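hi! just following up on the protien thing from before. the input was this:
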Amino acid sequence: MNIRGEQFYRALVEHSSDAILVLGADLKVFFSTLQDLRLVGLPKVNPLGTTLPEYASEEFRDDMANWLTRVIDQPDDDHRFEFEGRQRVERGRHFVAIATNLRAHPAVQGIVINIRNVTERKLAEMEARHYAMYDSLTGLARREFFSQMTRRAVAHANRHKEVLSLMFVDLDGFKEVNDALGHAAGDRLLKEVGARLRDTLREDDSLGRGQLLENEDRIARLGGDEFTVLLTKLTMPENAGLVAQRMLDAVAAPYVVDGQEVVVTISIGIAVFPQDGSTSEALLKSADLAMYAAKKEGKNTYRYHSPL
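and the predicted 3d structure came back as:
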């Protein structure tokens, strides 16, 4: 009966989808269900007789050592450690190690670690997060994510006494174009306009001091045919106008939609921190007002916010 019991549990372990390691009192691995730990994204082939940090990739070696310290100090809790596979065949896969401290258990006397492949879950989380952050049509930032970036930029500019600008961009006469071509063609036009706006931005228009933003994070589609653009690291407010003119020129070039040549223009309102607002919300309001002033001037132009 004891032999059958041992075989039973061994079969369960061998057919488990998890890799199982057991660390002894010296924190060295004395049992492993895998002889080649590269299968779970770890670099060493056989871990027996080594400690986990010894065969962990250098980039998370210290974090793993700290994790094990918590496992020892908090024996009543389960502890999770997530990492990404770094070996060639496992690059891009995600794993979680779950440790249970059974050093006081007479039949185990060690720390049991289950390593599980959570790639599908991680990719689903990343996809959901990307969808929440970026517009599905244009690939540009959504309003809320852009607002978060703007608040960070304003805080940074305030600390370092820097100049930044928020621009509000609106297509001129898009409703008429949309009605004439249809919504599907209108969406394709919006996608192309968003791409042209993004492509006009340069790295020197973004955050400095190691805080560069991707172009997709510096421009947002607020909804419909409205966009906002964040410019930082400006040496003077007038530089925002230079970027605005690049955008006007880029958008005004003809488009071909469903075999038809279409020309659209934009109106741009520019607000400058700190004189036009000390918060992201105030800057957006000032830029919106300036955009309407640009439309009143005849459209296809930009205007700075002018306090009444």
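The first helix runs from residue 2 to 14.
The two ends are 91 Å apart (CA to CA).
cheers
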